[in-house]
Specification:
VCA0040-like, transmembrane, two-stranded antiparallel sheet
Length: 311
Amino acid sequence: MPFARMLLDTGRGALIGTVEIIPGVSGGTVALIVGVYETLIDSAGHLARGVAATVADGVRGRGLARARRELSAVRWSVVLPVGIGMIVAVLVASAVLAPLIEAEPVASRALFAGLILASLVVPIRMVGGRWRPREYGVAALGAIAGLALTSLPQVDPLEPPLPVVALAAAFAVCALVVPGVSGSFVLLAVGMYAPTLAAVNDRDLAYLGVFVLGAMIGLGLFVSVLQWLLTHRRRVVLAAMTGLMIGSLRALWPWQEGGSIQAPGPDLVPALLLVALGAAVVGGVLLAESIVLKRAARRWDAGALDPADNG
């Protein structure tokens, strides 16, 4: 695997991992933006089925042939660098970014709102063709669901028992699968955001181990369902994702107190400039991605691109 490609995928994972600690911002959204979403979802499905086959077939004495087939289908050349980037970014961002977000909540939410607004073009474009009334209706329902999710009252932090940690992680990890849903906000809504962030900063291995186990179980259960939906109901699913992203913008309204929406303050103009900056950043990323894809397509037409290097 080319070293430059490995660095690029590690950087993509770092971006996904960084936003995963920000309530209201979806790691799945960033995965869409940086172009690794479908690769990660497909590989996660093969990985989950491979692990399940290893356990089931191993216990029954059927050998590991089925597990090896599933595991060999995982795009390890992408998954490993992305995973490493995510882990490193979560560790660094938890210690550095979280205090900054707490100190400048209005500015950070305004910037993130701009990121999400501009990234709406990604699932809209992925739907392909002209939207039909059904897609508009599904997107509206998705927006209502996203708005309802981000309107949940925030509860006080608590010290959850480990089984509850695993259960919450199983649901929160769906944020990596469904753009528009923030895993950190799910944790915040159930009072587990602060304990989880503290566990990362304190290197609480017992807590983190249970959290990762719960996340793996949740991902394994959910990813296969999403894969089927993307294969058989692609337009509807992407329309729903668009709606979820729109609804999630409620959590990123810059002026709020304890989750309650407030009127714009005297810092309206700087906030609007930060929204524009966030949108410009995503626009630049999408433009760069478009240029790269066009060049890759030309190389493909010329017969100079190996299929394994595409995506």
